[in-house]
User: Which sequence fits this backbone?
């Protein structure tokens, strides 16, 4: 089992910044990739940003140039730095980890952290 603990969600004014963190813990696992997704009321969960174990990243078009994903492999932690926040970035943000545990690949999700951007 792998546990993901997220932090950093908050209420912020438009134009402000936040940094989300997600730490993975467990035993006998390796991380293939980690990412952030978000869900707004009435919408499906969508990819925000993802980073592989080798450092390759991809972003949703509507956050490119504003958000930066990074990771600390030694701490099994992924970060999402969000700048120039907009009201439409308001959502519940979920951390995801694509891991291999005892040679089996699996997806794990955090509980979510709320980001609210006021206009």
Assistant:
């Amino acid at each position: 089992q792998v546990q993901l603990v997220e932090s950093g969600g908050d209420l912020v004014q438009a134009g402000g910044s936040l940094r989300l963190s997600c730490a993975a813990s467990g035993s006998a696992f390796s991380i293939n990739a980690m990412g952030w997704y978000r869900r707004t009321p009435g919408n499906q969960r969508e990819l925000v940003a993802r980073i592989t174990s080798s450092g390759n990243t991809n972003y949703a078009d509507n956050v490119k140039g504003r958000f930066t994903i990074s990771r600390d492999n030694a701490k099994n932690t992924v970060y999402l730095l969000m700048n120039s926040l907009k009201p439409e970035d308001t959502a519940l943000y979920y951390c995801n980890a694509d891991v291999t545990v005892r040679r089996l690949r699996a997806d794990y999700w955090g509980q979510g952290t709320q980001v609210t951007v006021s206009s």
